[in-house]
């Protein structure tokens, strides 16, 4: 967590300990002392940890996803769970756009080949983004920033999102479509939705088969939204032209059948990893937790 968080807690009169590298057992042994807990992604706030958290009133996640917190167990204990839904949106959207460019021009493979002394100019024929159709699955905070940047690149943007109103779609300059329409029309597909029972495997084998031949797929949201075996089969058959995953069903993804597949790019859940985003989420989580602890104010719970 960026040190700004501790600074804000102290300025607001909240005593703070900066704790890193504790095992779950060690966290269990000390958690009873604390009224609030601010975490990033690697700390798992399990039912067991919560059982030992006798004084805990609030957990704040410096980031968007709260998948590392057992929400039902926290709610049962009356512990409020907050996230910071805005601080890393731009950064994550930029990572999705970066991966889209990387897929369009096979940048990682071209880089590896050039640095291996091969100079394979004829091997790497790319595609332009201009005039291509980008299919957005999820048009919330991050999806709408991706749409804005894609429109700036002169792409056409179609969006599938049950929560997207026609007025908001108009304001964003995107066309609201059904999932099937998106799958049939998109040259690039990017996912920006949480992992829920409704979105799990949204790009299943069946749905991947409905995509346009040559489609390129980007996922900087959550692993589990795409059937990774079906994605591998689609890349191998050539139906899918490329895929870039920042997130995997099982993380850390130390091995995957996708690794080494041509036209496949991966990064280790770097979507939110910029200095700006980490400062933003640290400031937001500290302000929200301090508000709650000092005066009971609840934001983004
Ligand atoms: C988030 O949920 O904010 C992102 O996935 C960032 C992260 O977990 O590192």
UniProtKB/TrEMBL annotation:
This is D-3-phosphoglycerate dehydrogenase. It catalyses: (R)-2-hydroxyglutarate + NAD(+) = 2-oxoglutarate + NADH + H(+); (2R)-3-phosphoglycerate + NAD(+) = 3-phosphooxypyruvate + NADH + H(+). It comes from Sphingomonas yabuuchiae. Belongs to the D-isomer specific 2-hydroxyacid dehydrogenase family. Its EC number is 1.1.1.95. The chain holds residues 1 to 301 of 516 of the full protein. Residues 97-271 form the D-isomer specific 2-hydroxyacid dehydrogenase NAD-binding domain. Catalyzes the reversible oxidation of 3-phospho-D-glycerate to 3-phosphonooxypyruvate, the first step of the phosphorylated L-serine biosynthesis pathway. Also catalyzes the reversible oxidation of 2-hydroxyglutarate to 2-oxoglutarate. Residues 2-301 form the D-isomer specific 2-hydroxyacid dehydrogenase catalytic domain. One of its GO terms (molecular function) is phosphoglycerate dehydrogenase activity. Keywords: Amino-acid biosynthesis, NAD, Oxidoreductase, Serine biosynthesis. Pathway: Amino-acid biosynthesis; L-serine biosynthesis; L-serine from 3-phospho-D-glycerate: step 1/3.
